[in-house]
Each structure stands twice: as structure tokens, then as C-alpha cells.
Amino acid sequence: MLSEQDNRRLTLTGPGTAMGNLFRQYWQPALLSRELEAGGAPKRVKILGEDFIAFRDGEGRAGVVEPRCPHRGADLFFGRNEHSGIRCAYHGWHFDVQGQCLDIPTASAKVAESLKPKAALHSLAVREACDMIWVHFGTPQGDTPQLDFTDLPPEHYFVSKKFQQCNWAQAVEGGIDTAHFSYLHANIDNGERAGLMPSQGVNEPPENGRYRWMIEDATPQFTILEHDAGLVMCAARQADNNQLYWRITQFMMPNHSMAPNSFPGDNHVGNTWVPVDDHSCWIFCYAYNPERPLSEQERRAYANGFGIFAEVDDNYVPIRRRENDYLIDREAQQTTNFTGISGISEQDAAIADSQGLIADRTRELLGQTDLGVVKFRRLMLESVDLMEKGGTPRGVGNALAYRVRSGDAMSEPDAVGLDVATNRFGELAGMSLRESRGTAA
Ligand code: FES
Ligand SMILES: [Fe+2]
After folding, report:
1. Which CATH superfamily is domain 31-136 in?
2. Which CATH number fits domain 154-435: 3.90.226.10, 3.40.630.30, 3.90.380.10, 3.40.50.1980?
3. Is residue 68 within 6 Å of ligand 1 at its C-beta?
4. For the stretch 114-128, what's the b/e string if a residue is b when 16 or more beta carbons lie within 10 angstroms of its beta carbon?
5. Which residues of the chain have pLDDT under 70?
6. Which of 21, 214, 324, 384 has the fewest CB atoms in 10 Å of its CB?
């Protein structure tokens, strides 16, 4: 539970807000690289409540600049993309990807030269990595976060995005809450909850058994660890033969997560939740395999909506969304699928949206399986306090700290999260992995 004031402090990211100031310390993905063509049409981009246009010049350089032409305020979305930049459609002022004014055809050469410095557009720092175009609102400290797949060949990963119609923070809370798998992502078989994969019974391989264990044990025991980029959430469920089944999730400041559901050899998946405004966000979704290229079949499945990837239209808006109640099928809900909503991603989206445009955290009854959510909120709010006192929030200027991995592990019944995570991931559990401070209140 949060006070109303803390709920606002956690969720609002527009200009001048506390959380907005925190987000502006970090690189954020604004678009997929493939959304901008060299010399192609500019795209409108809204991020942290601010409007921009993004475009690539004829040499392929990407720019993200304010949309308002400094001459008389025309929207540069309507501008003509020419080789060295965008030309306003009204009177032809011309700007490069860094917002520098290149040409003022409405003035004499002499006047134009003196006007140009004043006519520069506000622009964001831009870098491309991991098939995404990243922006920074201020002076970047360091590189874009070195996510686990950053240095893999492009054949090893797939990146997409999907529009989410609620505040970013509750969507993150869904992403780091593995407890909900026992219900939200359950199937129905013979009128009972059942795992996503058909069970082969006791002694089946853990890759299968995990779906049954998640159905059987709805009270995973959480251990939260900390590292230089954020938190590691280790959730243990009872498995067969007195073993524990662990789902280990990474949260990296301020809005990235690597999801579990990966035994060694499996593909890994993760998300970045980027606020558009206070009532919607883009979720950038990635899948990768450190050991092999993704197959064509896997790429097609992700592109068509599978797992954390939604089935989306040409604008990356999910087909099953708030306006159509996610095409909930009440017959299926009784017979085949616990929610009646098709797709893991769509189930997650529906339930996060259902908490309201901004979830009211003043009215909650949190329990032991909400420990990760509590720690996330605390880390975010403490980071805001730290920043306001002049400190450096976790992850700022520390791109390498983001090189962490998530996944699943099996252990003996008395194993502790710190050892399980370290054994499973080694260095990739997180640099300076340490046990969490304090308790979950
Ligand atoms: S408003 Fe853009 S050139 Fe006049
Ligand atoms: Fe989920």
C-alpha cells in the first residue's frame, strides 16, 4: 500500500515530476530501429509526456527533435525529409538530426546566418543499440544499458514493441510478479486449472514440470537480492521429490525487466516499459538466445504474438486491447483458458489495464507473494529521494551493470536464493549481488 502522495510520486513521469526527473537520468528506447527509414517519413513520438518527431536523414542518422518549427510553430511532422534533414512544409526552414537549423529561405543570407543559432530545435541525444533507437533527455552519463544480448549477432535476437493502455508502473509490477502465473496464465482442463503444457506426471523434465508446479503452488517464496542495476527476484515453488523450482526475474532501473521461464538452452525474454504519458506506455519486448541464432519459425511466432509478444497491428497496437475487452471468450474461460483471453501478453495487458489508468495503491492488501512489487516501489521512491539530495541513482552511468540474466533453476529444499542465482548465472546474476536491505513492510 502507498499513500496517495507516494502513488503519484511513483507513477507520474511528465516534465517537472519527481519520477519524470528520475527517468530523464537514463537512456530510454523511443522507437524500434526499423520504424525509421533513411530519408523516409518522420514519425510522431511521445515519451514521458513530451511530443517529438523522429526521422532518419539520407545518410541513415536518426534524430528525435521537438515537433514545433521555431519560425511560426508549424508541426514538422508534415515536413519533407530531404537528404540532410527535415524541411518545414510551411516556409521551408531546414533542420538536421541534431536540430541545427541549416537553411532559412525566408531571410537574406546575412540575416539567416545570424538567426540560425536561435532557430535550433530542441533535440534529444540519440543512440542505436539492440535494434532500438534510444534517447536521453539530458547529458548522458555513459552508454545505453548493456542488456544481456547487446553484443550478440543480430540473428540471435528479436525485438518488437506493443502499446499498453495504462500507467507504466503497474505494467512493470505485472512483469516482476511471477506469482500470478498460477492463475492468470493457467489453462482449464476438465473444469480444473491446468498448466500451459500438458503434464507427463511426476518425474517429467523440469521444462514441462514447471507448468504443473506453478499450478500446484500459488504461494512462491520470494527472496529479493540487490545489485548495481536493480533487483533480482527469486521465487521458489515446491517441485517433485522435495525439490524447489525457482523463477528468477531481474529488474533494472528504472523500467527494464528480464523475465523467467528459461532453463539453460532456452530463449530468454525481457521488457522495457517506457511511459508515453501517465496513462499509457510502450513495452519494448525482446527475445534472445546466447548460444544460437533464433530460428525463422521462432521469429515468425514472436512477430505474430507469442509469449511476451502481443499480436499487434501495423502501429504495434495489440489487436486484443482495452476497447474490445481483449476479445474475452467466456465459453473458453469455462473450458480451456482461465481468463478466456488468448495470449500470455494479452492476459498480462488486460489485467494491468483493469487496475485503472493509474492503479490506486492506497487501497490494497499486500501479502507475501507481493514482496518483489514492494521492493520495486521502494527502490524507485528511494532513488527519487537520492536524486533529489544530489546522489546518483542505481544504474546511471553504469551501462555494464545491466548485463544480467534471468531464468529458471532447480535446487535442493534448503537452498537460498543468493546461492541459487549465483550457481545458475555466475557473474550474470548481477555484479555486486547482495542480499536485500530491510524487510518488506
Ligand atoms: S513555420 Fe516552419 S518555416 Fe515557417
Ligand atoms: Fe504474466
Report:
1. Rieske [2Fe-2S] iron-sulphur domain (2.102.10.10)
2. 3.90.380.10
3. no
4. ebbeebbbebbebeb
5. 436-441
6. 324
